[in-house]
Amino acid sequence: MVHQLEIHLEFFRFFRKKQRQSVLMDETVKPLRVPPQVSLYGDKHNISHLVQGLMSSLVIHQPEDPIDFLIRDLRRNREDVPRVLLLGPPAVGKHTLARRLSAELRAVHVTRDSLLDQSERLQELPVELLVRLVHQRLTETDCFNRGWVLEGIPQTRQQALSLQQAGVIPEHVVVLEAPDGVLLERFRGKLVDPLTGDVYHQTFVWPVDDFVAQRLEEDRSTSEEQRLAELQRYRCEVTGLSSAYQHVLKVVNADQPHTDVYQQVASFVRTRHRSRTPRILLVGPPGSGKSLQARLLSEKYKMVDVCCGQLLRSVSAEGSVLGEEIRSHLDDGRPVPDSLVLQVLEERLSRVDCSCRGWILHGFPRDLQQAKTLQETLQPNR
């Protein structure tokens, strides 16, 4: 992995050197260009994801020797290090699911009970203390190397934002949901294995091993009134809590067989979020609203709105050799040759604003051959 990073850096140094050489050779100041290959290379090798992961690790762990820390972080396989939050109301099945998920992922299962001693579990902890306990646990060696599944924390939006500020940033957040009637039924049938702490239910989840089934005990840790109060508190907090993680959130209906719930959660957790510079084509017939949608998208996502027709007219008005050639076609009402259009597009889309923020192109291509040529040169990804 370290060798790959050195190759990536050398690639960018090469293009930066070429850019500096071109500026020195030309006395006129031209817009800085980033060759399309840089963006394509970054997407292919997940450079943005790599850098984002490294920066997140620095924020979370705050090592005394950042360079040594980053080298060790690169040497491990980051793809196999999950960071998962599993949230939901009482009795929805978080504990059983978290235990199974952490076992399959070989990650550390972290719960509120595992962070607190017996006396602390019975009281409401200050947000600062809870965040400090969570942060300390997730920075320990086992969580750092194997990843973690954090069950039932945070419980409020304030806790979620405080954890984020402390650098506890999950890659996947799962919220289990079920109707109150189902949860109340699960409350009443909840059973616990006194040896392992595993949770079972008379109807929903029953152990395969008969010896385990014989030693199960009714859960008497909380009364039904306490459970109802916890459920009501969760309902008041869930909207704000979910909004803190909306970019990495999946809500799963837990009112279905346990195996189905687990498969949905496991499938989501295995997905990886990739940052790609958007290179978008907006296609449609004349009058379909491409220009309006391009403007709205560019305003919302800060991409560069590139209308091919406007771009050609702008270049033709510059008075350059290329502009004069384009103007001759526009004045005569003839279509501008594809070679000239692609030359103009490649120059515009390789400028720093397009390379950094991404672009949305409309007005080109207009036929299959243009589309094939554009795909070979600029490689749109949406």
Describe this protein's structure.
By secondary structure, the chain is an alpha/beta fold. Helix content is 55%, strand content 12%. It is built from 20 helices and eleven strands. The protein has helices spanning 2-25, 36-44, 47-61, 66-75, 94-105, 112-115, 118-121, 127-138, 141-146, 157-165, 180-188, 210-214, 224-243, 258-270, 290-301, 308-316, 321-331, 338-349, 352-357, 368-377, and strands at residues 83-87, 108-111, 148-151, 172-177, 190-192, 199-201, 217-218, 249-253, 279-282, 304-307, 359-362. Strands 2-3-1-4-8 form a five-stranded parallel beta sheet. Strands 6-5-7 form a three-stranded antiparallel beta sheet. Strands 9-11-10 form a three-stranded parallel beta sheet. Strand 5 and strand 6 (199-201) form a beta hairpin. Helix 16 (308-316) crosses helix 17 (321-331). It is elongated, with a radius of gyration of 28 Å. It starts with a helix and ends in a 5-residue tail after the last helix.
